[in-house]
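User: These chains co-purify. Model them together.
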Amino acid sequence: MGLELPKYPEMEEDQVFNFTDSEIVSHVKQALASVLSGDNNSYNQLVGVMHHSKHLAPDEVALLETTLKALAGAVSSIDITHHDSLLSAIYCMSMWNYGPHVADALAELIVSLAISNGKYLDLCLGMLVSNFTPPPYFLDKLKMPHGLERKGQVLSRVHAAFKKIADYVPLAPLRLLTIVLQGMPTIYHKDRAIVIYVENMLKLESGEIGELVGSTILMAVVDRLIELDVEIGWDAILQDDFSKGIFEMELEDVDDIEESAEPDVGEFRLSRKSLAGNSIAELLDNLLVLTFEHLESCEREGRLAKVFETLLQSFRVTVLSAYKSKFAQFVMFYACALDPENCGMRFATVLADLFVQDSQPQPTRMSAVSYLASYLSRAKFLAASSISSMLKRLVDWCLEYCEAHDGDINPNAHRVFYSGCQAIMYVLCFRMKVFVDVPRLKSELLIPLEQVLKHKLNPLKVCLPSVVEEFLRQAKAASLFTVCKTFIFDGLLESELSRAFGGLERLDTFFPFDPCLLKKCDSFIRPMFVFWSMVKPTYDDAFDDDDDDDGSSDDDLVQDFVNENEDIMNDEFGKSFDEQGVDMDEFDYALKKMSITPKATSNYKFGGRFQEPARMPSRIRPSTSPESL
Amino acid sequence: MEGLSVADANLVMYLHPSKSRNVSQSILRELGSLLFKFNETFDGVLLAYDVNILDKQAKILSGVHPYFGLRLKANLLLFSPKPDMLLEGKVVKLSQESIHVIVLGFSSAIITAENIRGEFKYRTKDTEELFASKSHKRHVIKVGTMIRFLVKSFDEEILHIIGSLISAHTGSIRWLDRHLEEDSKFDRSSMKSRDREWLGDKTVDEGATPMSYDNHIKMSKKRRITE
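Assistant: Joint model of the two components:
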């Protein structure tokens, strides 16, 4: 019990007294009580002790710790009006400034204060929330081992304090929720503070209090992602260099990454470069990585399904309705990748449901089907059977629509229908080879599709020429069906008609899951992602037959990828990004291990690429920005 | 325990037309948003509700309001602690300075040392902190004990209660129930009449502990939601 109290202000320097805890508490109580009688002397000394924050000598540290502990014992004597200077001094203290002992004492004081009187609850929670972020001078030290250690110390204490307060004040989490949401740095705080703040929010979500406040917090995080997302305009990504043609292929092969230091490696790199130096993009990248890591931890704890429902809801409310969201949707993609059977299918089903519901507004239905198409094409983890069942739903809906509607091309009136058709064709550009080889799918899926495409509404003429062209090319190679009319595309990206059905929002050229342009984020997504360069179109069959090792047809590939993904996930990506040391070389090694494309074919593709570019627009870039339409 | 009451309320709820697709769900959601918050109209905290929709057809309000009004009849369980009411709660934390109590599982209460009568002395027994009565050896308050206390004040925003253990008919419920009858005829009659008054509401079975009220509330809430 006996605590040595060195150098209490009113003591003489060379004397050291031994006090018991209760003696110190009563001393502090006297100091607090003396204010009421007008004697501020010892009270002012007490407040003075609280203001010591930097470069403390060991004895000062001990004094501060003892005082805080004594105050925690005397909270009932603190009066909100008479002791406001003491209270504000306490609320201004930052745990980041002190070592573990003082931080412990401070946390204890805050907890006792919060539960002692309802009036202090909000202030105490607010003080703890303000400890989410370090003081500005500390931000630079965060990456250093010492900084990381301090961060761990502070955050664990803050969250333990929340837990304690919630134990004694059961309704505290509700108040905490508002405080956390209000205290969230806005997008104009472009520094790292928001990253660590979001990290804390996610930590709160995964803790016990998360049961009560988790879903709202998660939604707030997604909202912030979207806000940052819309801050990055499409013109930051799009380049003005149209000399290369509006069609850009995706040069996303393994070798490209290795050459990433070299200047000329295609559209993907270039546009990423245009994002470089964009502080918002960097911030968003970091936040997305945090969210991904959080999802991974949810998956480990077996509560991904619950979190996914929240994400799905916020996706429907914010992401889907945001105008052409560019990055935030990858949260969904990653969550789906972690649990393809449940979450992955659930996402696709929800999108398909949104698309077929007549009660939904047209733009929602069109965006939903854009998301669905892009998702089904790009998700490497989806089984062929799930993709085909989704496609079947779309084809059935289109067929029904055709039967109900008669008449000529009218891009405006049948926008939803055309977007559906384009979605089907887009997915088939990526996956046709898988389906052609299965007779059942051929009869169920591809034959009805022919009826749709040859209907008088003539989707082939209206949809994006680039998609239609690629689709017809593959369909022809697979001898699926032939189109009697010849279409002249001239490598056009878009036509009058496609623009018309896309509307002012240009939903015709919206492919939400195109390769992710954020560097760190991309390294998470990449192993689960189908790049256009990995797709084996049907028209390559002739060459494949020459190869001996064509045992890896696409459907095998799909399966292989899933397995390989798991391996990679386990040994490389299971670790957090930081642990890996953010090393792109290592990452490339991992990529090579995946052997995405069989060597022989990849060589062929590389050699042949320049003579016969695969013309699927991976990243379709509107020739003009929508505003100028 | 006092402070709980059942009210029959005639309410008119204004719903936005966008909610017209699922009216009953949005009524429940609207009422649900009132739960566990102090409401001045009800003069208490809404704990549970049972609602009947009287109108088969809602009236669209004329004029600028696009909302439509629905008449409801609701049975509300309210919690409105007032000074000098007797409340019951479970001790969750105890120190020399104070006793922390949770009432009905959601409202926190604190009884500070100056509001604890001199009869109780703070002691530590095998590292367990407790308040023990000097005059009655078996009258002990420790973490986990259900106690009865008087309300001194109630913070309506945080639902935080400041309580007191000054008067003689407060303390550990278990001990009070056993000994108060023999001990003090006067206290007993005053307390019984209080209790009877309150039990007249027939909201809760006699002898039920506050924890089971809480369960009751949660259950009924759950039932509402699943309906």
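Residues 3-183 of chain A form one domain.
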